[in-house]
Hints:
Blueprint: E1 9-12, H1 25-37, E2 43-46, H2 58-72, E3 78-81, H3 87-100, E4 104-108, H4 117-129, E5 135-139, H5 141-144, H6 150-156, E6 162-167, H7 172-181, E7 185-188, H8 194-200, E8 204-207, H9 210-225, H10 229-245, H11 251-261, H12 278-290
Helix pairs in contact: 1-2, 2-3, 3-4, 4-6, 8-9, 9-10
Amino acid sequence: MADPIFGRLLTAMVTPFDAAGKVDHEAAGRVARWLIDEQSNDALVINGTTGESPTTSGQEKVELIRTVREAVGPDIPLVAGVGTFDTPHTIELARQAEEAGADGLLVVTPYYSKPPQDGIAAHFRAVADATQLPILLYDIPHRSGVPIAEATLLELAEHPRIVGVKDAKGDLASSGRVMARTDLAYYSGEDNLTLALLALGAVGLIGTSTHFTGAGAARMINAQVEGRHGEALTLHRALEPLFTGVFATQGCLLVKAGLERKGLIGPGVRLPLVPATPAQVDAFHALLDDAGM
């Protein structure tokens, strides 16, 4: 199994906004501490899609990294989402994140333009060559429009700073083949597929529901890694309604609704996102209540 370079459990953290639509740094610090102290996270992903990164500026991203670093201290790894569909812009964000104190980078496949595989490989190599930070590739074809092909992953695994994959491809057989042939650290990018990917050699999870399920997910991951497979399966089945229920609409909307109920953040999101509907919020709160969360 590959080395879990950033630990085994990470959460793609939401970005709180205040009533005026500005980043709420005080709330961001509270959420970061909640994820570490109460939800057993080993590291955090900042400025990912769950953090509404398409709607935050480069300066807001830098300031958020600094805020979270101050909140969690120097020993918690921070992985910064920097991927865009524009290679020079992605490189600029990567360098800014490195200067702001990030420990790693999450770089999504260039989206919308659907580049060919040699373009995808060139994009990732250009970003990796422009920084000294380790990089996780984010393979999420249902958002980016195109997968990272197996051959491309095998090629990119040879780069010394491309160290892992956040895998939301949903193709377990393909992911298993890449893990068998490389040292890439695979992190599940689909909460409900974590146990299956762990069985194939993945090292952990970068989750969304883990704003609430983190402590249980950490126990599930550790049980599977330590060979207590029955315990891991029992935990998976208990957590599965929340693993999937958080995605009844865009994941960050229900996370924000749940965190608002806990008094950690306000309700704000940025267009084109809008708050979850009352029915969606009630259904999600019922799942949290049923799980004792």
